[in-house]
Structures are given as structure tokens and as C-alpha cells.
Amino acid sequence: KPDISCDDPADIEYNAIKTWAIDRPDILKTPEGFKRSLELRRDFSRIDAYYIAPSGKKLRTLNEIAAFIEANPKYQDVKLSDFSFTSPKIMEDTIPEDVS
Question: Which residues are within 8 A (CB) of 68 and not within 5 positions of it... i.e. 6 or more apart?
Fold first, then answer.
């Protein structure tokens, strides 16, 4: 954000009211037309990453992305290396105590 420094108060404070996760800093920018989506599992064990193709189809693996690109010549310039299924790390101290 412009005109914001580290000395300014945060927009939100870290606490255990919500479950927090930290994404890796090296995740590439999602290719244009695609959306990266993250889903927290009900048991809070991990977060699953997947992509939504421009057609709206959910793509869960690099093989599915490759098949989509091959079937849609409009996206032939999109590289598989632009996609990452690396999931964020869940901050364990913010997982609800009643989760088994």
C-alpha cells in the first residue's frame, strides 16, 4: 500500500479468533485468466491449493493444467512452471482446540 510504513498499526491483529496461515514468499503470480484458490480441510490438517481455469473448471494437478492448455490453444503461451500447488503453513496455535 502506498503511504504505509511498518510503524503504522496493522489492519488486523494476529490472534486465535481465526485460523491463520502463512504462504510461501516465492509463489509465482498466477497466469492471467486463471485463479489460485486455497481450501482449508475440515480437520485443519492442511490447506489444499488448486487453480480455476478461465472456463471455470477446477484444476487440481499439473497434469490437469497441461491437458487444459493443450485443449485450449489460446493459452499455449502459459507455462506449467507458472503454477504452484505449494500450500500455506497453518499456524498451529490458531487451530481451534475442539478440532480432533
Answer: 53, 55, 57, 59, 75
Radius of gyration in angstroms for the set of CA atoms belonging to the chain, rounded to a whole number? 17
Q: In what order do the strands lie in the sheet with 58-59?
A: 35-40, 47-52, 58-59
CA pair distance 39, 44, nearest whole angstrom: 10
Torsions phi, psi for 21 (to 5 deg):
-145, 150
Supply the pTM of this predicted model.
Answer: 0.76
Which amino acid type is present at position 48?
D
pLDDT in tens, the chain (100 residues): 678 787 888 777 887 788 888 887 888 889 999 999 999 998 888 899 999 999 999 999 999 999 999 999 999 999 999 999 988 888 888 888 887 6
Task: Give the separation between CA 34 and CA 55, rounded to whole angstroms.
Answer: 9
Q: Locate the DSSP E strands across the chain.
A: 21-22, 35-40, 47-52, 58-59, 89-90
C-alpha cell at 17: 479468533
